[in-house]
Amino acid sequence: MNIDLASDLASDLAPDLVRTFPFPFPQDIYRYSTNVERAGAAVETPAGQWGESVVHIDSEYAHELGERQAILGRDPSRMQVLPHMRASAWDAMLTIMQALALAHPEQMVLEREGEGETFLWTNRLLGIEQRFSYGDEDTLPDEPLTFIGAQVQEDIALLDQREGQLFVDAGLVTFAADWSFGFDVGMSFLEIHGPVPRVHQTGVIARAQKFLMRLQADAPHRRTNWSLTVGRRLDVSTETYPEWGPDRTRILTVDDDAFGAEVHLRVEVQHLVRLPESGSVMFLIRTYLLPLEAIAGIEPWRARLHAVLAELPEDMADYKGFIAYRDRAVQWLSARAPQEG
Amino acid sequence: MLQLVVTEITEASPQVRTLTLARPDRASLPSFTPGSHLVLECGPSVNAYSLLGDSRMPSAYTISVLKLGAGRGGSRWLHERSPGDMVTVRPPRSMFPPMQKARKHLLIAGGIGVTPILSHLRAAARWGHQTEVLYSHRPGHGTHLDELRQLAPESLRCFTRRSEFHAALQESLGRQPIGTHLYCCGPESFMDTVCRSAEEFGWPEGRIHTERFGADALDPGAPFEVVLRDSQRTVTVEPGRSLLEVLEETGISVPNLCRQGFCGECRIPVTAGTPLHRDHYLEDQEKAADDSLMCCVSRAQTDSLEVPL
Description:
The complex is a heterodimer of chains A (341) and B (309). Chain A has 16 helices and twelve strands. Chain A has helices spanning 3-7, 9-12, 15-19, 61-74, 86-103, 144-149, 181-184, 189-192, 204-213, 241-244, 247-250, 256-262, 292-295, 299-311, 314-319, 326-335; strands at 37-38, 43-45, 48-50, 79-81, 108-112, 118-123, 128-133, 155-162, 165-172, 221-230, 263-274, 281-291. Chain B contains seven helices and 18 strands. In chain B, the strands form five sheets. In chain B, strands 4-3-6-1-2-5 form a six-stranded antiparallel β-sheet. In chain B, a hairpin with a 2-residue loop joins strand 1 and strand 2 (16-22). Chain B is globular, with a radius of gyration of 20 Å. Chain A: Pfam families: HODM_asu-like.
């Protein structure tokens, strides 16, 4: 990301990106936990609210979908469906269509034609009207996961449950934060979380997996995850590290205004959904980015983020990828504290 | 919670009735994983029944109910329903799903245990999965035979004699390709026999799946005492009664759903004594820890238990 561009960001930020930002910290100290809650309830924030629906469309819709298409064009490994996951991919598509129709009934409509296998899908935002026969790939312009992945801002990962474990066996993930879907596909849930510090000793991952294995179709849940990142780059996957890795030290050389415009709090809202027909677990991972300068505009957020970053243990800041500029971010946030008296 | 209306009742076999339940406005119902069950509030009791029909955005749910003389009367209550009656239903739960990675599905049903097998078979037919079906039933009591024949014309075999079923079971277990998954539903003793035979043939545990919804009720068990530490009371759980029922009578409400040891809702901590775990929810390790139990079905190995309630 180029510095001149970045300095314009705050003024260009659509108001809904602040209003619906899922600020992730309920307290001044952050540690990993099995932080799952029922999906669907709106969360009030000092700036607005988020979380009323499983899928969320905001003013970045067109931009992010364009970004996803470009990434897929460069690297098709971001979309993979292992052969046994075909039914899951269809299931995911239909489930997401239902979620979109529920959240945006004016723009999105799923109609079933009679009792049969034929459906009509309408997405007025993108001008799509698609009739398809469930389970028949020939009736869609793309594979079901690619088709629906081009219509939601969420990344999609599909987990197969077998032998008392979950395996990431399908997905369309273009906005991975420092991991690689192409590399991880086929791995177990435990393997994928292997590198995360602390989580194994505390049993967080094992508990999370256990929770997911008992998830029922009528009860989608959600959790948040977060990091800091430089720029509004959504694709910070391992594959593109050479492009964004150097930003982590370059950011130390910019002035304060550019620092606040470029450094973003990156929040993932993950919806965990048991797909009703295939029984697979679907992760919908929606990524939100808000620059520090916008966070500083909401005082409770500024104070909370300052406290969390200042206290965060080294190994966690390192794993989350911002150890190099953590202290600078703490200083920056501290300098924006309202003046006393 | 869904309020559904009984739209149709048919006699599936001499003692089995099939009920069709739909929304009053006939809007589609939540999709479900094949092998899922529906928990119904049946007058005085709460019972689980496997879903038979179409699993994708179905316009109705269908269940088949065997009339039982014993039990808490849920099946009798359902047999007394008529079209137009309303039933309160909890959304489908999945505990017996088809394994997506299976190379082949060997489906084995005993008696009324044919119900989840039917829904597995429907899904397998839709996705072109290879199946083989063995169905053992009493003469004249085969249920849903027409649908089974339609869904598995090549691979269905029905048995009315135990010896013939056993011979076919042995033959079938011995010949399946590696990667076949076995799904079995029927009375407890029937499932025990099938599982034991499969293990003798070297089937790994992870490829054997059972849906323990037999017609057999759990053993009534021996009486035991429970010290309710916080309430400073002691209650006795008589044979044939559950700790959950006794707690409810005492005025202590415990969240619960299936009341059959499947859903995990009614787990309570145990602070002294050794539980006799009879649920299908806790994992072996959790059972071995003996620090909690599912109070709907589990009892005590010791004369008394202490719980912090």
